[in-house]
Design goal:
The chain is mainly alpha-helical. Helices cover about 55% and strands about 5% of the residues. Strands 1-2 form a two-stranded antiparallel sheet. Helix 3 runs antiparallel to helix 4 (about 60-75) and helix 4 (about 60-75) packs across helix 5.
């Protein structure tokens, strides 16, 4: 049975970031005093938290922090000063996993292609040699 991507563990690397508390509800809100996590904040603005975490992880840290700070300032039932949102966003972005730089492809592909090339050359030479040998023998019957 295949696990749907929505439930796979590939998203587990973002749980620390998503469940980090960024603030509390204001006293005017219906849930006054409750903690707001990054997951809550992203959900409240209508963004899929895991997709947004993946997007933010791919961005340069400064751009990701600005994007997250904009999310904080747009949250309903909260009041964020611009500096507070920026500072909190920078701290939260540091909890995101660093993207792993991928090394360029090694010569493995080229070796495979080279092997195929030389096998084809050897086969062609064998066919030419067999044809020449058959012509030298003449008819057998």
């Amino acid at each position: 049975m295949t696990v749907r991507p929505d439930y796979s563990l590939s998203r587990a690397r973002y749980t620390h970031f998503l469940f980090t508390v960024v603030g509390t509800e204001t006293h005017e809100a219906s849930n006054r005093g409750e903690d707001i996590t990054v997951l809550t904040a992203l959900s409240r603005v209508g963004v899929d938290p895991w997709q947004e975490a993946a997007r933010l992880a791919r961005l340069p840290r400064g751009d990701a922090a600005r994007s997250l700070a904009d999310t904080f300032t747009n949250l309903p039932d909260t009041h964020w000063a611009e500096g507070d949102a920026q500072g909190t966003a920078h701290r939260m972005i540091e909890t995101l996993p660093q993207p792993v730089p991928r090394a360029p492809a090694t010569l493995g592909v080229w070796i495979f292609l080279t092997w195929r090339f030389w096998a084809a050359v050897a086969l062609a030479l064998a066919m030419v040699a067999l044809n020449a040998f058959a012509e030298n023998l003449g008819p057998l019957i």
